[in-house]
TrEMBL record:
It comes from Cinchona calisaya. Residues 416-427 have a biased composition (Basic and acidic residues). This is SAC domain-containing protein. It is a peripheral membrane protein. The keyword Hydrolase applies.
Length: 489
């Protein structure tokens, strides 16, 4: 929605049938209201003008429209009726859904009969089993489907932002967004994980936020969703962002750091045939892709999303009595070698294979090795760092003011040493003041996988997050060293 409703907006209905288009006109009427008081005055006027047919009837409080859906009969409007604040990013509130509702929109042209109603009710009951209170989150003013880096560099309108891989209700909101030419009434739902905690180091506080965004394409449970499809989309593609923000008042400048990593199924054509009698079903390469076109397209997509280099951490088994995972390990290595032949040495995919299961009996040793891999990846990609003043405007994340002249600041020293970030004047204005671009950008990403992209991948991503956190805190000036040596493993 365009602005954040403090109390929610009332959803009213007239006591007569109306088409979906008439609901669009109601939205247009609401858009003329500049305040909550005007909104309620408009409702009273409409109620008085329609008393002859029963007036307006209160239906529910609404905090956003999830979308519209149609089965065999009328359209249904999906609403957020209760919400819970779960965190803030740069002054912008992020919410989860605690209760949702589904309201049928009557249509006089729809004919009803017993068989028709039975089928309609079946579809309706099926839709009600979708629990929007589990793992969905949204924001009215912050683009939660994008990382902080992309939020800053992205100039797309609200309509275009829905058409990303991390917005799960793009299709459901397509009609109303195109009819009204805005996103004032809808919210973009992201599925995954959002957790924010307040921590402190030596008396200085910061907010640590972990955001996982799961792609709406090729999502599913293990065994049922595997590998890559012909459109370069892999099963269970998840982007994880770790954000560290200095805890300061909204009027003062704050330091911000962000780092992104990725997980996804092994990008080959493969499957597993499930069976109740076999807890470890065979792994089958389902089709031969001689030129690895789908695999190549997948990594080209990663480059578009994150830039170069792409570092691949493959954690599957190497040696097995009966080859299962090792089949994929060998084919994956062949694919990377084949793809790299057409790439410049600078842009080569960096393939790291490490059989985590082999070393997992000694947890400390395994974690220490993964820490080394994480440090290697971060040396190649860097992470995002900047300083700015939070703003509540939805079209502007921060008013920029950087540590360009602070020669003693840790981030400035990192920037000077690496020489990989470019600090320059920018022609765009923010509140009349010139601003400059962030001191550090992340270019490239670490992509981790095992077979299920669950347990082993979780361990590796934890190690990466730990190493990244040390570097982020060092950049913000919270600790004196950026290495992880001071943490006992």
């Amino acid at each position: 929605m365009g602005s954040e409703p403090a109390k929610g907006l009332p959803v009213m209905d007239l006591h007569h049938n109306s088409r979906r288009a008439k609901y669009m006109h109601k939205f247009k009427l609401y858009e003329t209201c500049s305040s909550e008081v005007e909104c309620y005055e408009l409702l009273h006027t409409l109620h008085d003008g329609n008393k002859s047919i029963g007036g307006l009837k209160f239906v529910t409080i609404c905090y956003g429209i999830v979308g519209f859906i149609k089965f065999l009969g009328p359209y249904y409007m999906l609403l957020i009726t209760k919400r819970r604040k779960i965190g803030m990013i740069c002054g912008h509130s992020v919410y989860s859904i605690t209760k949702s509702g589904m309201i049928p929109i009557p249509n006089s042209t729809v004919q009803s009969n017993m068989a028709y109603s039975k089928n309609e009710n079946g579809y309706e009951n099926l839709l009600r089993t979708v629990d929007l209170t589990e793992d969905f989150f949204f924001s009215y003013s912050y683009h939660v489907m994008l990382s902080i880096k992309k939020n800053i560099g992205n100039h797309e309108t609200g309509l275009g932002l829905y058409e990303t891989m991390f917005v799960w209700n793009e299709y459901l909101t397509h009609g109303i967004r195109n009819q009204l030419k805005n996103t004032m009434w809808t919210v973009a739902l992201v599925y995954g994980f959002f957790k924010q905690v307040k921590l402190s180091v030596s008396g200085r506080s910061f907010l640590l936020t972990l955001v996982a965004r799961r792609s709406c394409h090729c999502a599913g449970t293990r065994y049922l969703k595997r590998g890559v499809n012909r459109k370069d989309l892999v099963a269970n593609d998840v982007e994880t962002e770790q954000i560290v923000i200095e805890d300061g008042r909204e009027t003062s400048s704050i330091q911000i750091s962000s780092v992104v990593q990725n997980r996804g199924s092994i990008p080959l054509f493969w499957l597993q045939e499930t069976s109740r009698l076999n807890i470890k079903p065979d792994i089958i390469l389902s089709r031969k892709d001689t030129n690895y076109e789908a695999t190549k397209l997948h990594f080209e997509n990663l480059v578009k999303r994150y830039g170069n280099p792409i570092i691949i951490l493959n954690l599957v088994k190497t040696c097995e009595k009966k080859p299962r995972e090792s089949i994929l390990r060998a084919e994956f290595a062949n694919a990377i070698e084949f793809i790299n032949k057409d790439l410049s040495e600078k842009n080569h995919l960096k393939f790291l294979h490490w059989d985590l299961n082999k070393y997992s009996r000694k947890a400390t040793r395994a974690l220490a090795r993964l820490v080394d891999v994480a440090a290697y990846a971060l040396d190649l990609t860097d992470f995002f760092y900047c300083q700015g003043v939070p703003t509540s405007r939805s079209d502007e994340l921060l008013n920029w003011s950087y540590f360009v002249n602070n020669q003693d600041h840790p981030a400035k020293k990192v920037y000077d040493r690496k020489g990989s970030a470019e600090v320059r004047d920018n022609s765009r204005n923010s509140g009349g003041d010139n601003f400059q671009e962030p001191l550090m950008f992340q270019n490239g990403v670490l992509r981790t996988n095992c077979i299920d992209c669950l347990d082993r991948t979780n361990v590796a991503q934890y190690a990466y997050g730990l190493v990244a956190l040390c570097r982020q805190l060092h950049a913000l000036g919270f600790i004196d060293v950026s290495a992880i040596d001071w943490i006992p493993l």
